Amino acid sequence: MTTGTADATHTDMEGTHTIMSITNGTRRRPHRWPQPLAGLRPGIWYGGDYNPEQWPESVWDDDIRLMREAGVNLVSVGIFSWARLQPAPDRWDFDWLDTVIAKLGAAGIAVDLASATASPPPWLTQLHPEILPRDARGDVVWPGARQHWRPTSPVFREYALEMCRRMAEHYKDSPTVVAWHVSNEYGCHNLYDYSDDAMQAFQQWARRKYRTIDAVNEAWGTDFWAQRMTDFDQILPPRFIGEGNFMNPTKLLDFKRFSSDALKDIFIAERDELARITPDKPLTTNFMVSGTTAIVDYDDWGHEVDFVSNDHYFTPGARHLDELAYSASLCDGISRKDPWFLMEHSTSAVNWRQINYRKYPGELVRDSLAHVAMGADAVCYFQWRQSSAGAEKFHSSMVPHAGEDSQVFRDVCELGADLGKLTSAGLLGARVEQAKVAVVFDAQSKWALEHTATPTQALQNWTEPLDWFSALLDDGVTADVVPVAGPWDTYEAVVLPTVYLMGEAMADRVRQYVRNGGKVFVTYASGISDDSDHIWLGGYPGAIRDVVGIRIEEFNPLGSDFDGVDATLDLDNGTVAHDWADAVSSVDDSCEVVARYEAAEDTGMKGVPAVTVNAFGNGYAVYVGCKLGQKGIATSVAPLLDRFGLSDASAEKATGSSAGAERSSAIMKVVRVAESGQRFTFLFNRTREEVRVNLAGTPVVESFATIDEQNHSAVLKPAGVIVLQS
Ligand code: GAL
After folding, report:
1. For the chain, which has fewer Cβ within 10 Å, the N-terminal or C-terminal residue?
2. Is position 464 annotated as part of the catalytic site?
3. pTM surpassing 0.90?
4. Which of the listed residues 610, 643, 676 is the one where a domain comes to its end?
């Protein structure tokens, strides 16, 4: 029976919502890692999401037989089990899960147990439709898939916390449960909620952040278009304003910050409920750290987990390995170089793209080892056994539809053996060696640049940090990806790729860093606005004009949406700008121009500086005033990397360089260093051809590689990888 409709019966008062922590205001929890089952040795965790409730009990023993065969030592259980565990408001059924966990424990397989709160059961939304989110137009987001709950709903919170309490009480003494997996991918499907609950919580959040409504007015620039408010209760979420209209950008930015905090708030409540009852079990929630999905501020969330865990799904095509490594490195940065947990990736195709490409031979093992290279001490998949029904039946798994007699399962077994070898060699706990160069990642700049009414909407597809990471790989440099609040100023050089928002504190940090001898590479669209997205006046990039030694009066966006506009601009170093170029109007005396535009006279861009180097204090600031893409960046910065002594002169690069004028390193090299001083060097083939590498160490693991012992070298096939110990 329906007892209400969403919002219609909803009467909670202002103040019911206790949100919230303001982003970045928290102390970090100490790193705690899931410990091995009693009597077993620690190893790299290996397994996946296990959903036994989708299968008859007769399959469970077979699952465990195959898990043992593959070397699986941990599975995540119960993520979407709420409807089974609590079939009615006052009925609980743990029996089936007890059986599953007992079987796993007996086989020496540990359990990462979910809070089971990711997706509410039908009876709950029937009883309390007011927990269903609303979209920007006010329409109800109905059940039918998953995660159909409002992050700010006090009713949902009550039920979710009860579930956490029951789970913790029931499993607090289980020796098989080694970690908690709280909810699942917070915000994946309920990131933005525009309901009345969200509205009230947003008002509370704004009150906490700004104290007075006038401070909100100031921050949001509400004198523009008569938006000045006189009370907090006039604050609305950014609901639908009609097609073609433009939302207040600072309000939108704050709503994104609020939405991240709102989800973090319910996560913290669930976490604390579990931790109160089982203080000894480390907790995590799986992030979605990837080049383009910065849906919440994961670096801020990184302070709130006992260990960072991540889900990553590959980008098909040319950027497969680079994007994976870039995302994994960002995860390592969020984890502050403590080992992290790869909670999900795929053995082959996903099912949620338009076209779901499978992985090529070798890529299953290669991808997992690339995550390990970047600091993962756990390798897990979505999911163990491929579903025969439901929305994910075409998603690859460790045991595919074809069964154990399949290449995927053979690769899964091979990987299990490889991880065992790496464990025996002492990799566990080794840290990724700090690179010379950091590429800074700023989720909030991404959010702000994606708003409407900017110089060009072409930046919606935000790839600048990834372009730099790949370009540096082309130049033989594996960079670390470091969150903007992380320790990027401890590196020899730093890239600030479209770090558009730059408050005073950040600008000072950049200034100090370069003054002390750091080398910074700043791109177009950086340092334009402060934290409230108010433009720094007096010429761009106002936040750090003195550091970069240039002044820009106007932007020169590039496009092809009108006849006769310029889509590209050539640079005199042979590269080509697209989408965005700065019309740099002056350079300081201390500033050297290293590339200029070659444009028609009438454009006003002929001879305008495109790439400059400014001497500032004891350091240098390079400014790249246009979007060049991976290849253009690689070509433009190669001489500067040499000049600053940042190029990796190792043999791998030399042997790996492909012929031709373009500098494109065929190899990605990553090093993890154990506390004992032992080094693990991972070498990956980035190309679709064979590449020969020198063996500066003893091979521990190799895949799609042939070792030539006589010549101390190896040939890596496409998707080939080798791990050397020294
Ligand atoms: C993740 C999710 C999993 C599964 C997977 C498929 O977003 O956590 O439950 O849906 O995607 O790629």
Report:
1. N
2. no
3. yes
4. 643
